[in-house]
Amino acid sequence: MRHLKSGRKLGRNPSHRKAMYRNMVTSLMEHGRIQTTEAKAKELRRIADRVINLGRKLPLSALEGLEGEALAKARAARVHHIRQARRWITDRAVLEKVFGEYAERYKDRPGGFTRVLKTGFRAGDKAPMAVVELVDELEVATETGPNADEVEPAAEAETAETEEREESAEDGASDAEEPVEDAPAETSSEETGA
Amino acid sequence: MAVPKKRTSKSRKRMRRSHDHLEFTAAVTDCPTCGEPKLMHRVCPSCGTYRGRQVLPPAE
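YS: structure for the whole thing
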């Protein structure tokens, strides 16, 4: 019986699988968006969501205003979270990103930090492929990808249709263009190349 | 051993095989953005959009 046996084996032994997940989580956190097979993408969600959650439980901003024992406790908890996250993240800079940038970005989102989009079939073995992305990364990618200038009119019209982006699209061109210059343009471009 | 008593006629053979064909079952729709046919629940391969968002760079 399959009871309580969750997860995919992906044709790898446990150590191979774990090593692969660590690499994938680290890449996802580094770039915000990675392309992989559908099965790996779906597995990655479990771990990536957990790692983001570790980061957002106690963002640095939550430590402000604490004093004495409460502060010491919160700090200790945060250190523990960092150590737990370090089991999945192989890169110091990426770890800092998870506990800084992503912690702030996702502090009010109750889970569901990743999105899997199916993208078709790989040339060579027809493996079903997918893009995994951190949920708010898409907006950045839309506005700042290498193809941003080519697709701008279409992308703008389309994002206006989706609920979250509605307001900012209507706010006028000057507001909309600001993040284009600030945000890192390369984060999502390379690995999404068709 | 059981053996056919009569040769199967062309007609019988063809009638038997009338169901031996592939059916087109893929869930295909027209992309709401560019109008090209695309698989449902998948990013459009021609324009790279999904549910109104630019997800991938459009195909050349």
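YS: worth flagging: The longest helix of chain B spans residues 10-16.
IM: good catch. Also The first strand of chain B starts at residue 28 and ends at 30.
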